[in-house]
Amino acid sequence: MLNVLNGPQTLGNGRFFWTGFVLVLMFALGYPAISDPYDVGNIAYLLLSTLTALGLSLMWGYAGMFSFGQTAFFGVAGYTYGVISINLGASGALTFLCLLGGVAVAALFAALLGYFLIYGRVSGVFFGIVTFATTLALAAFFGQTAGPEWAIGKARFNGFNGMIGMPPLELPWLDDNIVLEGVALYYFVLCLVLVVYLGLRILVNSRFGNVLVAIREDPLRTELLGYDVRKYQLITFVVGSALAALSGGLYTAWGQFIPPASMGLPAAAMPIIWVAFSGRQDLTATLVGTFLLLLVFQTITVYSQQYALILMGFLLLITVLLVPSGFVIGVGRLLGRLGRGVTS
User: Fold this and answer.
1) Looking at residue 169, what DSSP letter applies?
2) Residue 341: its pLDDT value, please?
3) 258, β-bridge pairs
4) In 3-state terms, the chain is what percent helix, strand and coil (to 5)?
5) What angle do CA 81, 98, 85 make, to 5 degrees?
């Protein structure tokens, strides 16, 4: 089983890594037993945000596509979930179909945008500029939808105040429904993050992942070897964007609220900082680093949001200047060498 999870495109491959992985997972499974429900729900929120970072790591770190549009797909999925669920009066299993609908609409939007960018030969910094402009355009659009005419059926967009009133996710169970909040939401999101993380490990260590890395290093040579570079890039862009959309749909169901600010400039910059600081070329580093950064950011925000944003900007500057490969990757490589020393 471990053979399909290990490979050259991920740093953690040995017995030392997987032992630590199992220990962390056991702690995560037992965490609700030693913490209060509020903290458990808060950790669930932090975990669902890591899906956005994992999608960006796949696009930027492995395929070399610097996208500034993760929060655009986050917001599109959130608003779509709200529109569908409010109009259907969703409950039970129908809420999950609404979530899938939100992700599907955002993925379709990503496919259309990605097609015109990738097949139009837009690359490098210009790819980032166009995705950034798309994100800000969507944020500006939803921000001016305050009037009663800006509605789809029963669902009003509410401008800068954001859409409200959508139902939480409900899991059918016997003759009742389990509302996914608190501990139930925590375990659901934890399992989802685990499945996505392990699935992406298999993907990047497969032939598909090897081609992505080849495209990142030299797209022209990869194309000359007979690979359809643009097809691989488009698939990767859609998958990475769909993960951000999944995060947005879950966030909307969790908070029963989605504002245009979730796509604004500060929000759009956050995934870039998380992934750059962590180490964009490794999924484990991205997952761990993003979670820790979110935890620190939230703690500081309690006292001052401005100081928290300044800290994020400072971390990005230090990463670019001193550790371009990412701080967490550097620590991971050090622990890997220590682990090989222990087992040898």
Assistant:
1) P
2) 57
3) 163
4) 75, 5, 20
5) 60
DSSP state of 168: P
Q: What angle do CA 223, 54, 230 make, to 5 degrees?
A: 20
Mean per-residue pLDDT of the chain = 89
Q: Which residues contact 217 (CB under 8 A, 6 or more apart)?
A: 64
The single residue listed with the structure tokens 């499945």 is 195
Listed residue (105, 103, 111, 326) closest to 230, CA to CA? 111
Cα separation of 115 and 238, whole Å?
A: 10
Cα–Cα distances in angstroms (integers) from residue 280 to residues 57, 294, 319, in the given order: 5, 16, 11
Spell out the residues 6+ positions from residue 146 whose beta carbon is closer than 8 angstroms to its own.
Answer: 157, 158, 159, 160, 161
The token pair at 275 is: 């992934």
145, 163 contact by CB (below 8 A): no
The owner of tokens 């769909």 is 242
Residues in the chain: 344
Q: What's residue 205's pLDDT?
A: 94
- DSSP codes, 30-73: HGGGGS-HHHHHHHHHHHHHHHHHHHHIIIIIIT------HHHH
- Encode pLDDT of 292-307 as tens digits: 989 888 888 766 777 7
Percent above pLDDT 90 for the chain: 66
What Å distances lie between residue 63 and 40, 216, 333, CA to CA? 34, 5, 21
- Residues facing residue 155 across a β-bridge: 152
Give CA–CA dist 73/313, Å, rounded.
23
Q: For tokens 């399909």, what's the residue?
A: 4
pLDDT digits (tens, 9 = 90+) for 262-271: 998 888 989 9
Closest to 216 in 3D by CA, of 69, 25, 66: 66
Helix (H, G, I), strand (E, B) or coil at 124: coil
Distance CA 272, CA 67 (A): 8
Write the CB contacts of 278 (distance below 8 Å, at least 6 apart in sequence). Answer: 53, 57, 285, 286, 287, 288, 289, 290, 293, 326, 327, 328, 329
DSSP state of 153: T
Name residue, tokens 């770190």.
Answer: 61
